[in-house]
Design goal:
This protein is of the alpha+beta class. It has one domain. Helices cover 16% and strands 39% of the residues. β10 and β11 form a beta hairpin. The protein is globular and about 55 Å long.
Length: 232
């Protein structure tokens, strides 16, 4: 209980800092990780999906990149060096700012889930691209775009665990997903990630491990792209 209270307090402080943009042209982006419309809780909470899988989430990490804002006056803002690693275990990763972006009303936001092929082969391992963060495979397979791990009695393996490490950038293996969403707010954008929408589309007794690029990874990436929504 104490741990939950601490998390709630920290989240409140994070939201407060999110509202206090110093530069009026900075656009804040806040990522809310949810399950069934409530904040995602790692390890200590069980959820039941629409396919009757009881699951516990132990890890969730993914890349958001190549942010573009479509503005009301017909122009666009493109973030430079646009790579953000979101980690459910690191609260500070759930908030970032698009620096000196705009003070014009925003119509749409576009971004990628994952790391594109040019970045994958660039040998730039700075910041959120650091392989030490556990999201890089190798030069010929690139980055893990989305990592989800957990436990479920539905899984057929001995440890009753599921692991989805989805990535790949080569032709016919490119799992990058492009997202475009309409925006209601101007200076602060809240992206809801509804994890249940992904797991509701799975049967864990049939599919509980994808760890390499390929057809299965491509199909799974199509399922999780539907998690992303703008909060209204």
């Amino acid at each position: 209980m104490k741990k939950v209270v601490i998390i709630v307090v920290i989240c409140a402080l994070t939201c407060l800092s999110f509202q206090m943009n110093k530069n009026p042209k900075d656009v804040g982006v806040l990522v809310h990780l949810n399950f069934q419309k409530e904040p995602l809780v790692l390890t200590n909470k069980k959820y039941v999906t629409k396919t009757n899988d009881t699951v516990t989430i132990t890890k969730m990490k993914f890349y958001l990149s190549n942010f573009v804002l479509e503005l009301e006056d017909g122009t666009e803002y493109k973030e430079s060096n646009s790579v953000h690693l979101v980690d459910a275990e690191t609260l500070s990763s759930l908030e970032f700012h698009l620096k000196n972006a705009t003070d014009i009303k925003i119509k749409k936001i576009r971004f990628d889930i994952g790391i594109d092929s040019l970045t994958s082969v660039s040998e730039n391992f700075d910041g959120d691209l650091d392989p030490a963060l556990g999201m890089y495979w190798a030069w010929n397979t690139g980055y893990i775009n989305m990592k989800l791990e957990g436990k479920s009695s539905s899984c057929t393996n001995v440890k009753k665990e599921f692991q989805f490490h989805i990535g790949g950038y080569l032709p016919k293996q490119n799992a990058l997903q492009k997202i475009e969403l309409e925006v209601a707010e101007n200076q602060n954008i809240i992206i809801n990630v509804e994890l249940d929408r992904w797991l509701d589309a799975l049967l864990l007794k049939e599919t509980n491990s994808i760890m390499i690029p390929g057809e299965k990874a491509l199909a799974m990436a199509q399922k999780y792209k539907n998690m992303f929504q703008i909060a209204h």
